[in-house]
Specification:
By secondary structure, the protein is α/β, with parallel strands linked by helices. The chain is built from 21 helices and 19 strands. Strand 13 and strand 14 form a beta hairpin.
Length: 577
């Protein structure tokens, strides 16, 4: 009986040994990479790339095998907006490996803000889920953060503080003047884009966004962003930081805040944390404006396309899940990112405060509109538009008449112009106002001024432009002389003053070229310089005369072949900006 028990025990032990040997052989076979090796290329925002490389090393220590291929991971630090633009060429579009590293199967940008702006389809596979977050805040000097009025600042307050319409003294900062908020727009300045969206959302009264394309083009938004951009341009005449990191360095290195060019930088909380680690003791901290907060959520986007095979796609998803595990994500939390359930770093004085709501990122067209204003702000000026409404302007070009195309282009500029601009509209033909060939449709003055049937001057201009109709012949010389004299009489000191003539034909009144040139010379004043700018559409036999007028008054002439297309709006925007 004892012998039978021994036999049974030896049999059981032998079975387990055989099973373990079979398992070991299976693992060995899998680990032998029978299908070879596969490399997972990861493109990551520079803010998170170092931590992802550390986690990639941890991941490879587990000897990952997917579809019988051993997987290695390479992380390349590259600006989110740079990758975004490259991916927008499509899944099989060109990729500059020398500048961007190997074409990735996994992209971890700063924010979903970038993911939403990839315009091409078929580039991203599935949903891009966050791996770590960091809210966009204002990096400021500690004196700013500690001022009594600072906690009450809303995103929508920033433009008026930037332009000096609201004083920093009211916040408890006497002698500081206007807010010097840096607006870097080079590659690696995605925080600026997200902050701009927060300002736009606050101006429109949106609770959490996203800002729509219509809102992005609206007068309140464009006026606010123009003030923000022009205030930054006026803050310093010297070189300006191109990236968020450069702006943070400049903020930290400046001396007395009251005489500094930069008082604030839109940055992620993690960027500020890292800046303080790089420069211990720097006099900077964070301030979180009220309103929906933009958040850099660092989503893991698995990419698709001819260059991404099944193994790489699975490896991308598996690595992303590995990064999210709490024991791995602690690497991110220790670097200043927010990871749910994990503690904040204990080596900083930053508060890591909570916030009420997260701003939903805008889509690509809306975001592009917002940044177009920041990159191309319209300088406030005083301009009288002298619009030719002769019969030739009624000719059709494209889907509308020449006049309709022109008024649409003018209205688009009116809508984008800042409230601090003064604009007016005159129309001219042969007999438009009794004995005069011209009429003052909307007198030149501040766009924000009220007292019009339509509401503000901006609204009156939009309404009157929409009603413009072709009349009879062209009486350019008489009308231009009158408009110029009126502009000199109504000169606004401190701004560029101009008359913008938009015409499509030669003058047919009785005034001679020499008489017009003499009249303009007599009306001009060195103390009240008014330039004559001209947009001429199609062929115009008066081109030499109009060019001479522009040259003698310091203006410019833009000739466009047709009112249909982008050339006319571009010319008008150029001469009124």
């Amino acid at each position: 009986m004892l012998g039978l028990v021994v036999v049974l025990v030896l049999g059981v032990v032998g079975w387990f040994q055989l099973r373990d040997r079979i398992n070991d052989q299976g693992v060995a076979a899998a680990g032998a990479c029978v299908e070879g090796e596969s490399g997972l290329a990861v493109a990551a925002d520079p803010d998170i790339a170092p931590q992802l490389q550390t986690l990639a090393d941890h991941f490879m220590e587990t000897a990952p095998v997917i579809r019988d291929q051993c997987v290695s991971v390479t992380v390349t630090a590259v600006a989110s907006d740079t990758v975004r633009d490259a991916l927008s060429a499509g899944p099989d579009g060109p990729w500059d490996a020398a500048a961007l590293g190997p074409r990735p199967a996994l992209w971890i940008p700063s924010s979903s803000h970038s993911v939403k702006q990839v315009s091409a389809t078929g580039v991203i596979s599935g949903e891009a889920r966050p791996v770590a977050t960091s809210p966009v805040v204002l990096a400021v000097r500690t004196a700013f953060a500690n001022a009594p009025g600072t906690p009450a600042i809303d995103w929508k307050d920033l433009p008026s503080l930037q332009t000096g319409r609201d004083s920093l003294a009211a916040l408890g900062l006497p002698g500081w003047g206007s807010l010097g908020m840096a607006l870097p727009v080079g590659p690696g300045a995605e925080s600026t884009e997200m902050a701009v969206e927060a300002v736009a959302a606050a101006v429109t009264g949106s609770s959490t966004g996203p800002v729509t394309e219509e809102q992005a083009r609206s007068a309140p938004v464009t006026s606010a962003l123009t003030g923000l951009a022009l205030g930054y341009e006026a803050a310093s005449s010297g070189p300006k930081p191109a990236t968020t990191r450069e702006a943070l360095t400049a903020l930290a290195e400046q001396g007395d805040p009251a005489t500094s060019d930069i008082h604030a930088v839109a940055a992620t909380e993690q960027q500020v944390y890292q800046a303080l680690r790089d420069a211990p003791g720097a006099d900077i901290t964070t301030s979180m404006p009220k309103g929906p907060t933009p958040v850099a959520d660092h989503p893991a986007a698995v990419l698709a396309g001819p260059s991404v095979d099944e193994t790489q796609s699975r490896a991308a998803a598996q690595f992303a899940e590995f990064v999210r595990r709490p024991e791995q994500a602690q690497v991110l939390a220790d670097a200043g990112f927010r990871v749910e359930g994990l503690a904040r770093p204990d080596d900083t004085t930053l508060a890591f405060p909570g916030f009420q709501s997260t701003l939903v990122p805008a889509d690509a067209p809306a975001a592009a509109e917002l940044m177009h204003v920041i990159r191309n702000p319209i300088t406030p000026r005083t301009s009288t538009v002298l619009l030719d409404v002769s019969s030739s302007m009624g000719e059709r070009e494209g889907t509308a008449t020449r006049l309709a195309n022109t008024t649409a282009a003018l209205a688009a500029h009116v809508d984008r112009a800042p409230d601090s601009s003064n604009l007016g509209l005159w129309e001219y033909s042969t007999t438009l106002d009794g004995s005069r060939p011209y009429t003052t449709v909307v007198a030149t003055g501040p766009l924000s001024a009220g007292g019009f049937t339509e509401g503000t001057r901006r609204q009156a201009l939009d309404a009157r432009l929409a009603k413009a109709t072709p009349a009879t012949g062209t009486s350019t010389y008489t009308s231009l002389e009158a408009a110029y004299k009126s502009a000199v009489d109504g000169y606004t000191p401190g701004l560029t003053n101009s008359v913008l003539l938009v015409t499509d034909g030669a003058n047919d009144d009785s005034v001679a070229r020499a008489d017009l040139l003499a009249a303009i010379a007599a009306a001009s004043s060195t103390s009240k310089p008014v330039r004559i700018d001209v947009v001429t559409i199609g062929e115009n036999s008066d081109l030499n005369t109009l060019q001479a007028l522009a040259d003698r008054t310091g203006g410019s002439l833009e000739k466009v072949a047709s009112s249909d297309g982008a050339a006319l709006p571009t010319a008008i925007s150029k001469l009124l900006s």
